[in-house]
Structures are given as C-alpha cells and as structure tokens.
Specification:
The structure holds two protein chains of two kinds.
Chain A (H helix, E strand, L loop, with lengths): L5 H15 L10 H15 L13 H12 L9 H12 L8
Chain B lengths: L4 H10 L7 H14 L5 H7 L2 H4 L9 H9 L8 H19 L5 H15 L7 H15 L6 H24 E3 L5 H22 L12 H15 L2 H10 L1 H11 L10 H15 L3 E3 L48 H22 L2 H6 L5 H30 L4 H18 L10 H43 L6 H20 L2 H12 L6 H8 L3 H21 L2 H16 L26
Helix pairs in contact in B: 1-5, 1-6, 2-3, 2-5, 2-6, 3-7, 6-7, 8-11, 8-13, 9-10, 9-12, 9-13, 10-14, 12-13, 13-14, 15-17, 17-18, 17-19, 18-19, 19-20, 19-23, 20-24, 21-23
The chains are: A mainly alpha, B mainly alpha.
C-alpha cells in the first residue's frame, strides 16, 4: 500500500538531494543516506499525482519534514521499499560520523 | 577434445599477430558468459562493461565467437576446468583487444574487465559485493540510460566521493602515488560530478520513478556502508576505483565525447591513483582541513538544444587550471600558471604582513588574498604536475633498481624548482629538462664516488695485507697489529659477501687493473645489466658493513695493542695467517 503523502516525501528528499549538491560540508557523512532515501522515495511514490509541497531551504529542514511524515505511516501495511525508506530516514544523522 | 580448447587456442593466437577488435572482444565475452550459463562471477562482471565499450559482433563475424558457441551446447553446466578455461580465454581476448588502444578510458575499462576475470569483486566482502553490483548495474544500463538514471548516478558518485574524501581525512594512504595526490584526484573528480549534476538536473523532471537495478544497488551500498568499518569501507572504495567511478563517468557521457570529457579524464586519473593505493593507516593528526571548493555556478543546457545523454560534461568555469589537464607543451597555460603562482606568493606575503607586499596588495580584501594564495598553490602544483613526464623520461636512463628512488627525487626537485622558473627566460619544459638532467648526473656522480670510497678503502687494506705478507719488520708493533687486524677485516668483509658477488667485487673494486664492464661481460658471459646490478649490490653491502664495522676493528685493535703492551713484547709477532686467509695466492694477491 502506498501512503497518501508519498509524493510529498519524495519531493522533500528530491529537494534535499538538490540542496546537497551545493551544501558543501552540511551533510558530511549522510550524503549516501540521503541519496538512498531519495531513490527509495521515488520508488514508493512512483505513479502518484503531483501535489504542491512546501520545501524548506535547508537539507536538514527537508529531512526533518520527511521524517515527520513517515513517522505517521503505518509500517504494518507498507510495501518493502516504503519500510526500507522509513528505516533509512530514521537512521540519517547529519552529524559528523553519523552514518 | 574438451570443450572450449579450440577457442582457447584461437584466443591465445590473438595475443600474437591478430588484432582483436573491441566488437569481437564484446562478442567473445558475451559468448563466454552465455556458455557459462551466467554463473561465473568474473564473466558476469566483465559482461557488465560491454555496453560501455562496443557493440558485440556475433558468430557470423567472429570465428572465436563461433567456436565458443559451437561448444556451448550441452551440458549447460560447466566443469571446473571448463569454467576456468573460459575465464582465461576472456583474459587473453581482453589483453589482445587492449593492444594498440590509445584512449586511456578504454584501456582502463579493459583493465578492469581483466581484473574481474582474474579475481571477481563479487567474491569478496559484503561492501565490495554491494559496490560491484552497483557498478554492474550502471555498466549494464549504459547503452539505454534514462536521464533519471543519469541524475541518480551523478548523486551517487558525488556522495561516494564525498565519503571517500572524508575517510581520506581519517586514514592515510602510505603507498601508491601518495596520500595527497590520491585525495586530490578524489576532490577533482567530485568537482567534475558536481558540474555533471548541475547540467543534468534541469532536464530531469521532479517526478518519482520506479527504482531500477541502479536504484536497488544504491540502497544495497548504503546498507553495506552503514555496517562497514571505516577503514574497510575506504579500502573497498579504493579497490573498486571509488565505486566504479570510471564506469559511472563513461555511462553518463556519450561515447563520442568521452575522450575529451573532463568527467571521464578525472575518473581515469582517479582510477590510476586509487589502483596504487593499497595500504592505509590511521592519520596521526586530526582530520585535514577540507579544501573549500570555489562555488561553481549551475550550468544549464542551452535553450532549444536537445541534451544528449551525458552532456553533463561541461568545461570547468574555474579559473585555476586543472593540475591534470595542463600538458608540458601547453606554453600559454603554463605561462598563465606562472603568473598565478607569482600572484599567490605575493598574496601569501601580504597575508603574513610583509609591508611591501601589503602595500602592493592594499586594494585586495583578505578574502581575495586568501583566494589568490590558494590559486597560487594550485598553480604551483599544476606546474609540477606538468613537468612530471620529464622525470619519467630521465628515469628510463637510470638502472631499473634505482629508478623508483630517482623518480621520487626527481619529483621532489620539480617541486623545488617550480617556484624558481621564470617563463620569460625559458620554457618550463626546457628548464625542468635541464634541471632534471643535472639531478641525474649528480646522482650518477654521487653513486660513483660512493663506489670509489668503498673501492679505495678495500684496496688500501689489501695493499697493507701485501706489505705484511712480504714482511715489514721496520714498522712499530702497534701499527703492525692494527694493520693486520685491518687486513683481516678487509678479508672478512669480502668473504662476507654472497658468493656470487665476490668475483665482481674483486674485479671491479679491488683488482689492481680494473677491467671495464665490457671486458667483464665478455669474460663472464653475463649481461651488462646483471654485472651492473651485482656491482651495485656488492658496493652497497660493503659500504653498509664498513660503516657498521667502524667501531669494531678500532676497538679490536686497541684491545690487541693493550694486550701486546701489557705483555711487554718487543718484537713483531710473526703470527701465521688466519685460517680465513689461507687461500691467499702466492705473491701477495688478495684472498678472494
């Protein structure tokens, strides 16, 4: 089952990935986690309708907003890729050496 | 006859006169993989590189493919030796295909294929396997890459290189081309991927798409990287060329522009340097300060221009020339670099508070000065880098065993003379060429002098031996005792050499008339190179032992003298020669 706000999560991570390209050291060790989460979010949201999403101006803001949304998901009903997305997102640590 | 034997023979013949085209290579690798039922990891990894290199020819265009296919009928399951034969066949064809290939990226990819056939990465640890599967997914998708995939690859490579760079701040590469050059290659490649990302981003819509093999492989890498210890991760990254960086760069760059692509060239450089980086150790000091990359404005494809796959290859807008991109013959670029180098020196002086430099640079802000200083340092590095082929040129004139040492000394000399080069007086190539020639001559002279020192010491000691053998009662007790002990030391030294070195040591270092190498070559039947090597080795050993024994003989002589004096001996002791000297030929010749 696909969560309703899967597109919003994808868009937030898509934006985080874009910001990361110019964020220099902000993401440090988490860059690989963000890319993996973005890929998974795309898979989860594939085929869903585009909706307007408010996009924060920082990588951290985008990740926080995405985490808030996936925390509401019922993991018992999720597809494997969505569950993997939740796991990856919850484990992202923007601190140095976090990943 | 066993299966694939005829094909293996034909492939071996390809290493000789017959040239194997890339198309035939591709067809052969595919045929081998099919014959192995897709079960051989080495062949699987090599097959993943096929779409990057060539369109495979089929059985109608290749006798080799025809032979493999003819044998690949039943049973489909291969015996161990058949599987091995197919892999070796693949190695031979890969080597034959690499003959005469000029493009560096093609040679590197063929080298990667060969390595996979010899030792598949998918048989190693968890992180190696995950990275290799990602590389295979990228390579396999290369001929039909979607823009979404290209963007994903750009993001992945940026993050892998970023991780690699951070790990290189924690661990030091102690071999290969050195830590800093390895790290610089990572930074340069990362910057190229940044530009590729900026070029791809505008053409890919912000729409979600189903994960492909590439996406799944990325998630697997992320999970494996999370579990891996940092050193193991860095080791795996370096082993795999930073996540198959060259494969990824080739995949997102159209075939026709790969040779001139900065992205591909930086990936080739990184692959070459990462290849040699084998040994890591924790860095003794804190993490190196990150290099602040100059902000690069996003590069967008021109309006109304169709963007072909991989147009992410954009000329760097940065004003600092890429250290790996300036060649020795690029006079104008080197002159520009010299200007930047000088400006950097001035900026550094101004930053240090030098009054004259501060007066000249008073219009520049501190930020400008720091930028100029950094650019100057990079320019200096680029000048050194451009001159490095001269070091390798001269190194070929140095005996093979001393070559490595010469290259290190030569590169060091280049870094010393790069700040001194004046482009108005000579070209960099001329200046560096002559300076390195001086270095080579100095090294040769120093080596010859070392040899003379050893030789003279030995000859002196043997002369003393002759004098003693002839009887020299006119000398004092102390002197004679000391001389005898010295002679015995000389004999001991010569005899301590490995047997195969004694003749050359005698002939070249001690004999009264020293024969030339040509005469020795004729008399011994050994090559000049072998004689030279043995002479170097003998000289080195003698020098080492003479140095080490400096304390010993002196101590012995004094002790012996003290003993003699305490016994109040008035006459020279006519001791029989020691056992080790009993082989001395008549006439006082050296005991050799």
């Amino acid at each position: 089952m696909r969560p309703d706000d899967a597109f919003a999560v994808f868009r937030l991570l898509d934006h985080a990935n874009d910001l990361m390209a110019h964020a220099g050291e902000v993401c440090d060790w988490a860059a690989l986690d963000v890319v993996a989460a973005w890929v998974l979010a795309g898979d989860v949201a594939a085929g869903s309708a585009s909706v307007p999403v408010e996009l924060p101006s920082s990588v951290e803001g985008c990740l926080d907003a995405a985490v808030q949304r996936v925390m509401e998901w019922d993991t018992g009903t999720l597809a494997p890729s969505a569950r993997a997305l939740v796991d990856v997102l919850l484990a992202v640590d923007l601190g140095v050496g976090g990943a | 006859m066993s299966r694939f034997v005829r094909a293996a023979r034909l492939a071996a013949a390809g290493l000789g006169d017959d040239r194997v085209t890339l198309g035939e290579w591709a067809g052969t690798i595919l045929a081998c993989d099919q014959a192995a039922g897709g079960a051989d990891p080495g062949l699987r990894e090599a097959v993943a590189l096929v779409p990057l290199l060539a369109r495979p020819v089929d059985a109608s265009g290749s006798a080799l493919v025809r032979l493999i296919e003819a044998d690949a009928t039943v049973p489909s399951r291969l015996a161990d030796d058949e599987s091995r034969r197919l892999r070796m066949l693949g190695v031979q064809v890969t080597r034959a295909a690499a003959v005469g290939v000029d493009a560096a990226w093609v040679r590197r990819l063929l080298g990667q294929a060969e390595r996979s056939l010899l030792e598949p990465a998918t048989t190693r640890g968890h992180i190696d396997m995950a990275l290799q599967r990602y590389v295979m997914a990228v390579g396999s998708a290369a001929d039909a890459l979607r823009p979404e995939d290209a963007l994903v690859i750009c993001s992945m490579q940026r993050s892998l290189l970023h991780r690699g760079r951070l790990l290189l701040d924690e661990f030091e590469v102690v071999d290969g081309v050195g830590h800093d050059r390895t790290r610089d290659a990572v930074v340069a490649s990362q910057a190229a991927w940044d530009r590729a990302f900026d070029a791809w981003r505008p053409v890919v819509p912000h729409r979600p798409s189903t994960a492909t093999d590439i996406g799944r492989a990325i998630v697997a890498v992320q999970m494996a990287a999370r579990e891996a210890d940092p050193q193991g991760l860095l080791q795996a990254l370096l082993r795999g060329g930073l996540g198959g960086n060259l494969v990824a760069a080739s995949a997102v760059t159209p075939h026709l522009v790969r040779a001139g692509s900065l992205l591909v060239r930086s990936a080739v450089t990184l692959a070459e340097r990462a290849d040699l980086a084998v040994t890591l150790r924790p860095r003794p000091v804190g993490p190196r300060e990150s290099v602040a990359l100059a902000p690069v404005p996003p590069v967008r494809p021109a309006r109304n221009v169709a963007v072909p796959a991989g147009d992410g290859v954009v000329k760097p807008p940065a004003k600092v020339p890429d250290p790996d991109a300036v060649s020795l013959g690029d006079v104008a670029a080197l002159r520009t670099l010299a200007g930047q180098r000088d400006a950097g020196v001035l900026a550094e002086a101004a930053l240090r508070g030098d009054p004259e430099a501060s007066r000249i640079a008073r219009a520049a802000s501190r930020g400008d000065l720091e930028q100029l200083a950094e650019r100057g340092r990079m320019a200096r590095a680029a000048i050194v880098q451009a001159g490095s082929p001269i070091v390798f040129h001269w190194s070929r004139k140095v005996p093979p065993r001393a070559r490595e040492e010469f290259v290190a000394a030569g590169l060091l000399r280049l870094t010393e003379i790069a700040p001194l080069w004046d482009p108005d007086r000579a070209r960099w190539s001329t200046f560096a060429y002559s300076q390195l020639d001086f270095l080579r001559r100095d090294e040769a002279k120093r080596k010859a002098e070392d040899r003379e020192v050893v030789s003279d010491t030995m000859v002196r000691q043997v002369d003393q031996e002759r004098t003693l053998a002839a009887g020299d009662g006119g000398r004092g007790v102390e002197e004679q005792v000391m001389r005898r002990l010295g002679n015995e030391e000389a004999i001991r030294l010569i005899e301590s050499l490995p047997e195969e070195l004694r003749d050359i040591a005698q002939a070249r270092l001690i004999a009264a008339t020293r024969p030339s190498r040509a005469q020795l070559t004729a008399s011994t039947g050994q090559s000049r190179h072998v004689l030279e090597r043995d002479e170097d080795r003998a000289t080195g050993l003698l020098r080492e032992r003479l140095g080490r024994g400096a304390e010993g003989p002196q101590e012995l002589s004094l002790r012996g003298m003290a003993l003699l004096l305490s016994e109040s001996l008035r006459e020279v002791p006519r001791c029989p020669p020691p056992a080790s000297s009993s082989r001395r030929p008549g006439g006082g010749g050296p005991a050799l």
